Automatic annotation (TrEMBL):
Protein name according to UniProt: Uncharacterized protein
Organism for this UniProt entry: hydrothermal vent metagenome
Amino acid sequence: MKIIKYILLVIAFVFIEQESQAQCAPTESVKVCIPKLAGGFHFLKSYEINGRGGRLDKVEYSYPFAKGTMYMVNLCSADGGNKGLVVTLYDSSRKQIATSVVNGQQLQAIVFNCQSTGIYYLTYTFDNSTAYCGGSALGFKR
C-alpha cells in the first residue's frame, strides 16, 4: 500500500512540474520581440528567457560584438511588454556596460555602440516578475 501511495505521489509531482514549465512560452515572446527592433536595425539573434518559474534568478547568453557597430537588445514578456524583465550587458572583462533599468525605470530596450570587438554577455534577470518568462531580440546597424 505504501508503494502505491509513493508511486502516485511521484506521478503527481511529475505532472505538476511539467505543467509549471509548460506555462512559460518564450518562443511566443520572441515572435513579438523581433518586429519591435527600431528602424534601421537588422535582426541578428533571438533569446528565449525561461526562469523556470522563479528557480533561476538569471539567464545568460554571450555574443561576439564588432567594433564600430551599434547593437539593440529589446525585451518582451508574455504580455507583449517587458514587465519584470531586465537585461544587463557586460563586456569580456565582466564590466557592466548597459542595463535596461535607469533611475528605477524599466526600459524596453538598450542600445549600445560597440567600441571594442570581443565577446559580450547578455544577462537577463527578473525584477518583481511573476512570470519569469520572456524573449529578447538582438539587432545591429552600422
